[in-house]
Amino acid sequence: MSSVFIRTLLASLTLLSVPGLPVDLSKISNDTDVRKIESDAGMVTIDPKYNSSMFYWYFPPVNASLEPNDDTPLIMWIQGGPGASGFIGNFFEVGPLNLVDNTTLARRNITWANNYHMIFVDSPVGTGYSYTDSDYGYANDTEVDVTKQLYTFLTKFYDDIKPELKANP
């Protein structure tokens, strides 16, 4: 992804420290179909002691009506590695946004987000836009620490950001 595109994208994802804010895609795309896609993004503090936070980008189903507490599953996408940004899955694999030529956003017609809630997470801490202020905030024992980080992230996501999705599979 080009650095100019990323800087523009970050400028549109304002106030990331406040989870659940809508993302205004009009700042990064003139495509009407892209601008209709609803989403929100933010940072979730998972360890205040080390100021460790995880970045997420959430999309409700693009082609389905969203009813609170419906039975539409939430799919959490964490890119392989571990240590690759969830942006890769969003822009190049299964997300509703397609990054064309590293500079232009387009709507992806065939996407998991057509019928499912999708959340793309930069995991573990230190990946993508997820960060920590201390070396102790990183996942040192990869499987155990990453699992704890994701558990804390999901708990806060369901409790504080999207409680209406708690009952969903």
Automatic annotation (TrEMBL):
Stretch forming the signal peptide: 1-20
UniProt GO BP: proteolysis
The UniProt record lists the keyword Hydrolase: yes
Keywords annotated in UniProt: Carboxypeptidase, Glycoprotein, Hydrolase, Protease, Signal
Pfam families hit by this protein: Peptidase_S10
Cytoplasm among keywords: no
Domain of life from the UniProt record: Eukaryota
Alphabetized GO MF terms: serine-type carboxypeptidase activity
InterPro entries recorded: AB_hydrolase_fold (IPR029058), Peptidase_S10 (IPR001563)
Entry similarity comment: Belongs to the peptidase S10 family.
The protein's name in its UniProt record: Serine carboxypeptidase
Organism, scientific name: Perkinsus olseni (Perkinsus atlanticus)
